[in-house]
Amino acid sequence: MKSVTAIVGSYRKGGVTDTAVDEILASAREEGAETRKIYLVDAHIEFCMNCRKCTRQEGLRRGECCIDDEMGSILDKIELSDAIVLASPMNFGTVTAIMKRFIERLVCYAYWPWGMHGPKIRNPRKSKRAVVVVSSAAPSLIARLMSKMVGLLKTAAGILGAKTTGVLFIGIAARRPEQELSRRTRKKARSLGKKLVS
Ligand SMILES: Cc1cc2nc3c(=O)[nH]c(=O)nc-3n(C[C@H](O)[C@H](O)[C@H](O)COP(=O)(O)O)c2cc1C
Questions:
Q1: Which atom of ligand 1 lies at the shortest distance from residue 16's CA?
Q2: Which of 74, 91, 119, 182 gives the lowest tally of CB atoms within 10 Å of its CB?
Q3: Domains in the chain with CATH codes
Q4: What is the pLDDT of residues 153-182, one digit of tens each?
């Protein structure tokens, strides 16, 4: 059975981003997959302090982080999954602060000892699949053009060993406090969920 782990970087449970993730996961479950959703807003994740302990360890496995929080167990779950969903609203043109904090902690997947010019991803193999979800108040076309957010989430997916097979960009997502997904968005979410595990 395939498994999907979704990382939700929205502050609002039941908001547009979360609802879109639910559609994707429901569709994956209909294909026989098991799914799990992790809300970053509930997770104890500290900031990367740039101590470089994790990046100095050799090998293909992620370096061990010296911070004692939930990041390690979240990464264990992702590593055991066949597919991932990375979802975030657009805030000030980029991912939410909690999503950025999560992404910065992915530095443990890079080998970067002192003296080396830049980080090198330990294992560039992309054996998983990923879907990236973004929501914005601005229309999707404009928001996507103005922001590097999709690229950032794709990069994060790549570091986690996943090739992005689909992007769901939901524009005009801040019209009402409880906004429903349009039929078109729901349909696309369903199709991406299916593709993720087929
Ligand atoms: C602090 C903050 C900053 C925001 N910045 C942007 C922005 O730069 N561009 C944009 O289109 N929408 C922006 N928005 C609107 C959010 O993207 C929108 O409310 C969100 O996609 C809804 O997702 P949710 O239902 O999961 O909370 C911002 C919202 C907040 C609260």
A1: 25
A2: 182
A3: 3-197 (3.40.50.360)
A4: 999 999 999 999 999 999 999 999 989 999
